[in-house]
Amino acid sequence: ISYGVLGTNGMKDNILQCVTGTAVVVSKALLLCHFIFAFIIIINPVNQTLEGLLNFPNKMGVRRCLMRGAVMLGIISTGLAVPEFSKILDLVGGSTVTLMSFIMPPLCYLRLCSLSRLDGLPMRVLRSGEKVLLVLIMLVGVTGGVAATWSALQEILSPGAFTTTCFSRTTFLV
Question: With DSSP H G I counted as helix, E B as strand and the rest as coil, what are the percentages for the chain, rounded to 5?
Fold first, then answer.
């Protein structure tokens, strides 16, 4: 739809950079809220694991704040050091997200349906059409995942892929 409305000329990777209006502002605000809350949910287990490995007490303290601050500093430094993070996201999306979305659910479902009860009868009998559909979904996932991962790796490994970092720029783009 985006290409149909805006055309291919001037189309950017992020569609929100190509359109304007109140809906875009609201979308950006909602995305920001999502990122903030999702980040807290994702980073908390990492912090708690590190605190457990370092035998920090399970209460608020200076060491705990310093460790969490160091983790944040590392995350921010990594984000600034990688000039085009979209290339890394393409690699992750092409490999792990495809595996998690297209390959593992049908595979696990097929495996669970192949289990038998204690009396030896199958727990669930899949029709051949269902099996074919699940295998086709996995094949589409494998094909798309391999193609996307290969494309992302080619982009990352191409000469000049990461020529500059945010540390070498004079201005920061927001």
Answer: 70, 0, 30
